[in-house]
Design brief:
Elements lengths: L2 H27 L3 H10 L3 H18 L5 H21 L7 H18 L14
Helix pairs in contact: 1-3, 1-5, 3-4, 4-5
């Protein structure tokens, strides 16, 4: 993948993840009824919902900064592993589609932003 394609894919993944996790962070931080019900179903305390929302919001900011996108993606990978575990542990296998997509997108962003193009070496004057 050339540098321009990698940059475009990186931005598309970043914007997609920022949108999805921005929505999730808003729901967690404002204690939307759907989110409260989910955390209650999983047996997590409400403070953990607020904490999760803050972590997601931090990751949103990080994925939008190309040099820090790998760190943001790593945070989102951890969040999505936790979400997948929570759904599967509570028999909600039908609810894992979006978390699985977001996990794959986070892994892809981490890979795209961490791969650096090879630098061209200038020939030394003696070899010209």
């Amino acid at each position: 993948m050339n540098t321009n394609s990698r940059n475009l894919v990186g931005w598309l993944l970043s914007l997609f993840l920022a949108y999805e996790f921005g929505r999730s962070a808003y729901g967690n931080l404002t204690a939307q009824p759907r989110m409260v019900e989910s955390f209650h179903t999983f047996g997590y305390p409400l403070w953990f919902m607020t904490f999760t929302g803050a972590v997601e919001l931090l990751a949103v900011v990080l994925v939008l900064i190309p040099r820090l996108a790998v760190v943001g993606a790593a945070i989102l990978i951890c969040v999505m592993i936790g979400a997948l575990y929570s759904h599967l542990a509570h028999g909600q296998s039908e609810a894992i589609r979006l978390p699985a997509i977001l996990l794959v997108a986070s892994i892809a962003l981490a890979w795209v932003r961490s791969v650096r193009p090879a630098r061209r070496q200038l020939a030394s004057p003696a070899t010209r």
